[in-house]
Each structure stands twice: as C-alpha cells, then as structure tokens.
Amino acid sequence: MINRSMFSLGNRRSVIRDIFEYGAARKAQIGAQNVFDFSLGNPSVPAPETVKQTLLQLVDQTPAAELHGYTTAAGDRHVREAIADYLNRTYQADAQADRIYLTCGAAAALTITLSALVCPGDEVVLLAPYFPEYAVFVRQAGGVPVVAACPAPAFVPDMAHLAAAVSPRTKAVIVNSPNNPSGVVFTAEQLQAMSDLLQHKQAEYGHPIYWIADEPYRELVYDGEPVPYPTRYYDNTVVCYSFSKSLSLPGERIGYILVGSRAAEGADLYAAVCGAGRSLGFVCAPALFQKMVPACLGQTTDLSVYKANRDRLAGALTHMGFTLAQPGGAFYLFMQAPGGNAAAFCETAKQFELLLVPSDDFGVSGYVRIAYCVAPDVIERSLPAFRQLADAYRLHEKRG
Amino acid sequence: MINRSMFSLGNRRSVIRDIFEYGAARKAQIGAQNVFDFSLGNPSVPAPETVKQTLLQLVDQTPAAELHGYTTAAGDRHVREAIADYLNRTYQADAQADRIYLTCGAAAALTITLSALVCPGDEVVLLAPYFPEYAVFVRQAGGVPVVAACPAPAFVPDMAHLAAAVSPRTKAVIVNSPNNPSGVVFTAEQLQAMSDLLQHKQAEYGHPIYWIADEPYRELVYDGEPVPYPTRYYDNTVVCYSFSKSLSLPGERIGYILVGSRAAEGADLYAAVCGAGRSLGFVCAPALFQKMVPACLGQTTDLSVYKANRDRLAGALTHMGFTLAQPGGAFYLFMQAPGGNAAAFCETAKQFELLLVPSDDFGVSGYVRIAYCVAPDVIERSLPAFRQLADAYRLHEKRG
Q1: What is the pLDDT of residue B1?
Q2: A283 and B105: CB-CB below 8 Å?
C-alpha cells in the first residue's frame, strides 16, 4: 500500500553504504585500526579554520532572529552576489546573482535542476562511470537515464558514444569533472568537443540540450591542471555546486545552482528551479551556513593531505602491478580489478580487510573505486594488505 | 521545453510571499515603521539562549571533521534517541529512535512522507483551512488533494465533511493543530472522533489510511490547554515536526519524521521514508543543527511575547467589532472579512498600511490571516489603522 519504489530505494541501500556498514561492523569485531575502509567519500581533513571562526562570529554577534530567520527561497541576496562575484573573478563565469539558487548541497541542486528541466519521458544522458544516485535523481524527476560510456582505460568523454546516446528526447547531459568515481579531470579540449557535438545536436533537433555540470570536486585537483569552467564552453549550462568537499562540510548541506546567463529560456528555467525547490520541500538552504559562505569563498580544506595520499597510494598500487585510471582529481582512485570481476575482487579484498567499491553501480564493469580521503596512516598501514591482494592475483611488481 | 508546472510554481509565487514582497517595497517607500506587516509567519522572538550557547560550544569544541561530516541518512543515532526519549517522557508517545528520520524542516518531512506513502492517483485529504503548500506537496508526490471543510466559525473537524471526503483511494489525511491559518487547537475529543471515523473507514476499505500530523506549532499554545499527541489516538500516524517555530530557527531547516510504532507496515514505511529522502536529494539533515537538538528539547522561544500579542490584538479587534476564530495557538488570528470578500478587504486594509493575507488560498473564503509573530510595538502602533479599517466597514464597537 505504501509506495514500493520508495521502499525499494530505502530498503536496498546503495552498494557504497552497504560496504560502509559492513566496515562499521567489522571494525567493531577486530578493531578500527585493522580495517582499511576506502568505501565512502567522507572527508577526513577538517574544515579550514576560517569556517570555525566565521561560524563562531556569526552565532556570537548576529541577532538570533536575523541569523536563523527564513531567507528568500533562492537564498540571501548578499550571499548570492558574493558567489557571482567570486565566480566571475576566478573563472570569468559570467554568473549573475539573480540566476543563483542556494541549495541543501549538490544532491538537492541536482534533484531541483532535474525537476525544473525534465518533462515526463525526457532522456538524460549520464557519462559512465557516473555517481549511482544520478539515475535515482533522473527517475525521480520523471526522466529516463541513458548511458554514454567514457571508455576504459582513459575514461574521458567519447564523441561517438555521446552522439549515439543523444536523441530527440534528450533534455540534458550530466557532466561530472573531476569525476566520481574515476578521478579523471576533463580537459578544455574535451569540453569543447562535447560542446561542439551538443550544439550540433541542438540545431538538428531544434531545441536546447542542457549541460548539467555537477562540480563538488572542482577544487580537488593535484597536478596544477585547470578545471575549465563550463559556462565558458556551452551556453545552456546549469552548474550544481557543493561546499561539501572543498570546505569539508558534507553534513551541513550547503551548495548552489547557477543557471548560465546565456542559457536558453534562462529566466523561465530559473523560475522553474525556484518552483521545483518549493515543490520538493526545500524552503531555503540552511541560513547560518548560507551566511558563512562569503567569508569562505576560494578557501579549501588542506588539499595537500589528499595529494600526498593520492601520490603514495597510486604510486604503490602501480608499483605492485595494478592498473589505475589517471587520478588527477577528486579523492578517488579507479583501479582495474584483476580477473575482470569487480564484485569477486572486492570480496577477495575483504579477506585482507580492504574495503573497496565495485564499479558496476557506476555503470562500468571490471573496476573498483578506492576513496583515499582517509587519514594518511590508513594509507600507510593498508599497503601490506594491498601487497597481499596483488599476490593473491599473482600480479608482477614493476621494476622501478 | 522546461517543465511548465515547475515554472508556474516558481513564477506565480504564493499569495503570502506576494504580499510580503509588496510590504518590503512599501516599507522602502514610506518607512518600515509605517507599514504593519502581518503577512509572514517569520518569528520575531529570538531563539532561546541555549541554542546560542549550544552552537558555540559545538563549533568550538567538536573536531570539525566529526562535527560537519555526513551523518547516517536518518540522522545521528544519539539525536534520534534523545528525541524518542523526550517524546515518550513528555507525551507517552511510544516513539522509537529507529522510526525517527531527521529532516530539513517540516516541509521536507511532508514531501518525504507523502512520497513514501502516495502511489499515483491516491487521494490525500486536507482539512480546510489548510497551509496552501500542502496541495503543492501532495501533487509533487503524484497524489490528488481532496478538501474536507472544518466549517466556519469554529474551524474544528467536522465528521460529516470528513466522512464525505474519504474514499477507497484515500491514502492519508493531513491534520495540522495548532492550525495555520486559523490558530485553532483541536481537542482530544475531536482527535478521538476523527480516529473513530478513520478506523471505521480503514475496516470498510480493508487498507490503512495514514494520519499525517503536521506539528510545527505544537508548543505554541497560550491558554494552558493540552495539544494531544496523535500517536495516542491513532495507530497509523506519521508525525512531521519542525523546530522552526518552537526554537525560532525557521531558516535552519531542522525537524523530523516520526513513524508511529504501531503503524501498519511501519518498518516498510520507514524504509520508504528513507528511500524518499534519498530520491528527493536530502542526503541528511544539517549536521550541526542535528547535534544541537538534544540540549534544546523541551525548550522554547519566549512564548509570553506571542501570548501578549495575541491577547492585545485579539481583544482590540473583537472590541472593534471584528469576528475571530478561537485563537488558541500558533501565531495567527483568523478574522472574518466584513463584506465577505477577503481579497477586497485586504486591498482596503492596504490603504491603511495593514498587510493581511486573504483566506482563499487556505481553502476558505471570506477570512483573512493575521500573523502576530511581530514585535509588540507593531501590534500597538497598528491599532489605529485597524480602527480606521473597522470604520471603513462601519463596524460597531462592542460595549465593554
């Protein structure tokens, strides 16, 4: 009698959460220090000190009724202006405060954007590998997910696959770079190629195809490479951003939607974003964390920890004979499962207390995701276990 | 090409928001002190000092990665246990921590609950007068709102009207007491009558009908009357609660869903709540404000201010010859519009710089809602304007 599809979503947890819960139980059994949990993208590096000082100052010095009161549904005007100014200064993003809508994190930004865009039966293209919740969010909005592979081993957008996935029913493409789960950062040339293709398709079909840029990992890159700003490559862009990873605030749910200033039907789309936020029950983004944003724009958690983790783990795994996607950003390694069966490989890994996530739910087979946003000592202590795992698969150590 | 129903929801703002925006413009024109804005339920009384001290202590003394990290989707276990304990101690609610799901406020609690319950075409009964967003939320979940009048002038549940509104397609009834907009508090006898009727209907149709208790105003009562706890009257109950009004934190979006421990399919329904929260993009309720809750349970903002406002304004308006619903709780007066045309009356009121909300969008004609959660001096200074309004309608002053 209840809604069975919601029951299924709640009852069959995501595979990531399942492994995380297994890990919690296993830690209770054998001690937390003996389990190497690489399952969840929960940042271990604390928020920058500015976050703490800003929160203390706001709570201590702002009258409570003003601090904690409703903001307008789109968010505090002053905060939206600060974000637009920051994006324009940093990326020449051509952002406008009145096209920004503050949200309870990137997940809310995505569900609101999809509800605003999708009409029943519309297709939304996901570039595999992709964050599994994308498919859930597209279906929630009444859409149909269509997958276009970014082929192994590079996992970069492939124009032939993308062209084949786009149809007259395509309403949007979700682009996630730096990518969860692959860690790959898409280059300016790759964005331009996608832009050219989608512009061609728009002209052919006579209607806009929106580019939904999901960017919670924008700042998490480690080799000095730029993360090109999507509004500079494509007009019909909606950016979904979150401060969860850049400021290590995943539990606080603060992010935003930016509708590109040159987006087709942009004013109407922004109104639809406001309508979708209202309809889904988001009233406004958390007020205290809205007001924290201006002081923290451009700041990040200590990314050198993630970089050191990546360098140490990627180097060691490659040396052991494993094969990795180019791990330029986010805080994930995407590693080929020797033997090709990701689920079986993850089960074997569990024997050595290594918790990895098989790639199948990300729309790719034969890989595992390793979330290296852990404390550095976990990396160090896990290496013997990875060595045993490599031995179990008879991998050959690379000569240095 | 975008979703037009979302566009309409965003473009045609709620009538309450429209009047609020008119008020903001008018204040800029003639000075804030000259506009008497009774349009919005935005608390003027600050959060209790415990909120401030708890937030300062949490931010200052909890490691940031722990404080701001993801909680489980249902919310921090310790917080849910504290809430269950409080409800059981205070109301003998038979609440269980593993049937509580923390949400971004009551609006999210309602959209999540409705998505968990409603199958396409299911009907959800609203008791008029009702908060206009209920109809939006029911439609978002794929349901059909069906209205049962609580007839003027008492605005209490009417069993004949409720019986006529319930059908074999009824999935739930939304019950809101203390009521927005009427201020009426439903008595134990009225809850029992509704319970008897719904139990009879459930037996007749052979399936559960859920009682969704929307309770953001639970603590805001002024005459010492109890607000009966719904799980004590009806098994198939889901409580949607928010700390927005009790703690004056409407912008922070913190509340919860409680699935009654004896609810039919209770475990499955709770799983569906988790699935709906996931599907709508709520990840978890804001982590800092989750952790604030245990220290603040049972506390409230200074309700004596609202009581004084109510007594002063209700007394004066009645004396001027206006007719009010029994204003036992929440922070609204529901006043008959002399002449019977609420929109016309509100336009006339604007001539005296009084901003009132016509009742039509609440599912009732001929009344206005007056939100008295304003600073006490606004009440005092508005009285001459109300007097002029009464004179314009040639009302007769009551002899004291």
Answers
A1: 82
A2: yes
Q: Residue A306 — very low, low, confident or very high, per pLDDT cuts 50/70/90?
A: very high
List chain B residues with pLDDT less than 70: 13, 398-400
> Structure tokens of A157?
């957008």
A279 vs B6, B119, B268: nearest CB: B6
Task: Report CA dihedral (A102, A209, A114, B68) to the nearest 10 degrees.
Answer: -40
- Tell me if A52 and B65 make a contact (CB, 8 A cut-off): no
Chain A residues in contact with B282 by the CB 8 A cut-off are 104, 107-108, 253
Task: Find the helix or strand (DSSP H, E) in which A334 lies.
Answer: strand A332-336
A282 in reach of chain B (CB within 8 A): yes
CA atoms of A105 and B287, how far apart (whole Å)? 12
Confirm or reject contact between B140 and chain A (CB < 8 A). Answer: yes
Chain A residues inside the 8 Å CB shell of B276:
3, 6, 9-10
In angstroms, rounded to a whole number, what is the distance separating the alpha carbons of residues B180 and B296? 24
Cβ–Cβ gap A11/B275 under 8 Å: yes
Cα A166 from Cα A201, distance rounded (Å): 8
Integer Cα distance of A370 and B43 in angstroms: 47
- B81 contacts chain A (CB < 8 A): no
Q: A264-301 in b/e burial notation, b at 16+ Cβ within 10 A? A: bbbebbbbbbbbbbbbbbbbbbbbbbbbbbbebbebbb
Q: Does B371 touch chain A (CB under 8 A)?
A: no
B118 interface with A at CB cutoff 8 Å: yes
Residue A42 has a pLDDT of 86
CA dist list (Å): A210 to A122, A129, A231 = 12, 20, 11
Question: Model ipTM?
Answer: 0.96
B108-141 pLDDT tens trace: 999 999 999 999 999 999 999 999 999 999 999 9
Give which of B117, B279, B78 is closest to A12, Cα–Cα: B279
Q: What is the pLDDT of residue A312?
A: 97
- Structural domains of chain A sorted by starting position, each given as residue range(s) with its CATH number in brackets: 4-47+301-392 (3.90.1150.10), 49-296 (3.40.640.10)
Closest residue in A to B10 (Cα–Cα): A275
**Looking at the predicted structure, is the pLDDT value of residue A120 above 70?**
yes
B7 touches chain A (CB under 8 A): yes
Scan for tokens 């789309």, then name that residue.
A269
The larger pLDDT score, comparing residue A149 to residue A1, is at A149
